[in-house]
Design a protein that fits this description.
The protein is α+β, with helices and mostly antiparallel strands. Helix content is 25%, strand content 31%. The protein is built from 6 helices and 10 strands. The strands form 3 sheets. The chain has a 6-stranded antiparallel sheet with strand order 4-5-6-9-8-7. Strands 1-2 form a two-stranded antiparallel ribbon. Strands 3-10 form a two-stranded parallel ribbon. Helix 1 crosses helix 3 and helix 2 crosses helix 3. The longest helix is centred in the first third of the chain and has 16 residues. The C terminus is likely disordered.
Length: 251
């Protein structure tokens, strides 16, 4: 590999470096290949390590690179198309749902969630934790907040805890008439708890999809789903195929 020095450019130096690194990924590296360490890369491109880190972080955000515990920075495989907001209106846990319930607890939700649910301050709600896997890879973790008023007939005797309790809550939720839902997507950083489940480093970029489910003129449930920004391409109402030229070895 030759040495490439950066020339004076109007855009930020890290941004130009990102372009240069992208070209190198396309021409010199394969999916899964480990990149040289930061010191060697900074020397090759004639930049400070702080500038290099900015460029690498941007490439990670765009899904071109992955930082893996105990391995280093590797070239990422293509993003997986993950459908959210599928056609039609269905409750979480309905037939064909790709999520797997893992646990259910009663907790006081964050203030922002309590406001959406219009629950009293300090009032506990059912919190169902679910996970989603695509092509053998963990792609998302979800917290589903359901007030007790949405599942009034739930029995604590039949399913006191864990995944069984989560399934029982979701079954009861199906009894409500779903009037509609709305969604919002924003960029965030992964929490320590979700990072472990998603095999990410805490603070890594993620896509957060918040969904409100409406029934009886009120918000009956709120979902906060955290998707891996480096491996997921979210689709709404159908998938979109993205094709790259044959020279795109690593994308």
């Amino acid at each position: 590999m030759g040495t490439t020095q950066l020339e004076s450019v109007p855009e930020p130096k890290y941004w130009h470096l990102k372009t240069v690194l992208t070209e190198a990924l396309d021409s010199e590296f394969s999916v899964g290949e480990i990149l040289p360490n930061e010191r060697d890369l900074a020397a090759r491109f004639g930049v400070a390590r702080a500038t290099l880190r900015q460029a690498l972080e941007q490439l990670e955000l765009e899904g071109r690179l992955q930082r893996r515990r105990g391995v280093g920075t590797t070239v990422a495989p293509p993003r997986v198309g993950v459908a959210v907001g599928a056609e039609g209106h269905t409750w979480p846990g309905a037939a064909g749902d790709d999520w797997q319930p893992t646990d259910c607890t009663a907790v006081v939700p964050p203030a922002a969630i309590a406001d959406l649910l219009e629950t009293d301050q300090g009032e506990q709600v059912h919190t169902v934790r679910r996970s989603r896997v695509s092509q053998g890879r963990p792609v998302a973790a979800e917290l589903l907040y359901i007030p007790h008023s949405s599942v009034p007939d739930l029995s604590a005797i039949d399913a006191p805890s864990g995944a069984a309790r989560a399934r029982a809550v979701l079954r009861e939720l199906q009894h409500l008439e779903l009037e509609g839902r709305d969604q919002a997507v924003e960029l965030g950083s992964v929490s320590a708890e979700d990072a472990k489940e998603l095999d990410r480093l805490p603070g890594a970029p993620v896509l957060v999809v918040t969904t409100r489910f409406h029934s009886g003129g009120r918000t009956a449930a709120v979902s906060v789903a955290t998707y891996r920004a480096d491996t997921c391409r979210l689709t709404f109402g159908g998938d979109i195929e993205i094709h790259h030229g044959p020279e795109r070895r690593a994308s």
